[in-house]
Predict the structure.
Amino acid sequence: MNPAPTNENPFAGDSSGIQQRETAARWGLRVGSYIVVIITLAIMLHIFVKGAPVVFQSKWPFVNTQFLTELPATLHVIEDQEGTRIETDVNGADAVKKKLGDNFRSEKTISYSGGGILGPIVGTALLVIVSVGVALFLGVACAIYLSEYAKHGKFLEMVRLAILNLAGVPSVVFGLFGLGAFVLTAPTFVDVPADRSVFSIPLGFTTLSFEGWDTCVLSGGFTLAFVILPVIITASEQCLQAVPQGFRETSMALGATRWQTIRYSVLPFATPGILTSSILGIARAAGETAPIMFTAALAFKDKLPWQKDLPPLPADASIFAHWEQSVSRFLGIFTESVQALPYHIYTLAAKIPQNEYAERAQYGSVFVFLVLVASLAASSVLLRKHLRAKYRW
Amino acid sequence: MTPAATPQSIPPPVVQVRDMDFCYGASQALFDINLKVEYHRVTALIGPSGCGKSTLLRCINRMNDRVPSARVTKGEVLVKGKNIHDGDVDLTQLRKQVGMVFQKSNPFPKSIYENVAYGLRIHGEKNKSVLDEAVERSLSHAALWEELKDRLHANALALSGGQQQRLCIARAIATVPDVLLMDEPCSALDPISTLKIEELMHQLAREFTVVIVTHNMQQAVRVSDYTAFLHLGKLVEFAPTEELFTNPREKLTDSYLRGTFS
């Protein structure tokens, strides 16, 4: 017999509160996500509002070229009797004062806040190039070995654990490590070993001396490389593991050696992912302050790394001598200490008295820094997209 | 001795497995296997899941070497009369001469041409005309040349499942192996693609020796000259296919073929 039709809703919800809990959970999660988004946007907006006016201007060429192309300098602000302020650099200050004569009221000097930030930009670029180069080479080699060659077992697990632990080491510890390892004891070729040399091996034509590289791009770059190494190893290994095992089997079954298999059937398909991991590496390497404090960065430097006084060559110098000098000038870039953006920002924010001029320089630097990191990341994303389209399975 | 018994008229088996035991670590997968594969014949390995037929197949080109702690513990495997576990056997040369096609079609995400040329390239062939010639020959053998000759540089992943598997066959025969091992090559394919590959196998047997693992008994009947029935790691019966299917000697084979397996 069919049940008699009723007007009751057979699917009415019960009153056990399941629906309320569902709603509460959804709203809790939603609010959490919104807070994150709002804070991120607030940071971006704040930096844009404060920093963009420093970098952009309303007149042609719409970009403050001075800020991007000059080295940092001390800013002189001279005030006349009417309260008008004139900003100038150290060379212009005397002329301005002479011109004002009795009209002169006061002069303020603000360290590092004048000029531009070309020095820090160049320094950060060099540090990123060295560190990402070193970290990609070591990290990818290590990831390939761990993923393709090493035998599974306890030892491999321990190595993986060690790499993960490395990621948790505070960056200032890396800074101290870099100071001890690269600045003070790394091996270098010299004619006469310094007194501080740990030990030296005479090689006849030169001496291999463990006396360190001093504070320079190379020391800082290597230190930063170790900071980003765990990120790159872990991510690269995951990318290698994501390549289907079938590719390896097929390649081996066709008689390829292990290296041929990796070279032609694994690495091409893992490269997009490895590049993604190096994006993270670039952003991190560019942003770290503590590791370069002791190893590469200077608060102030009035020269770019390649502006070095080398003895002028005689007029009849051979082309070889010119070539040799160019090479040594190029290599010299990496043995110079530099200014770096994060350290410059730290100096502006914490090492000098705060006022409107210092703040202007701070936000300008932060804005440029963010734009640089974002454009690096964007170009890597584009490259990855291009490679993905080429190698998809 | 009659002239028919001389080695000239009866060639030695191309693959010979003698008293072989095989272990994955502590668990033994194959027990005392004896198998002879004749030149230019299709030999099928049948049996229920987990009976070790794929393991046996992978012993022939030592693909099991990739599995840690897997090894032959007794007996030997001879290919073209040579024990392939001898120290002076170069794995790359062995695998060049003993090709393999896998269950899942797995072309590289490269062009059709590059897929087929892969084996030759890794063995150092750079001459464009040799590669072109090998690609055409292999694709023709795999009955793909007519379909694909106009788009050799298209990505292999754009092909249908059946075409992909035939491409894998073309890739495996590009290095002109003596033996072609096929591990359930049709199990992921539709009936029409399966039919095409089965037709292909008869033609392939003219030039190569084919060993095929299949869980499809009708397929074994259709394509093979000899059939080996494995059960729980033991080779129960090995005979000409017709004989094994119509008049099995072992009771176990009979009940497996009838589907009344306990």
Notes: The mean pLDDT of chain B is 87. The radius of gyration of chain B is 19 Å.
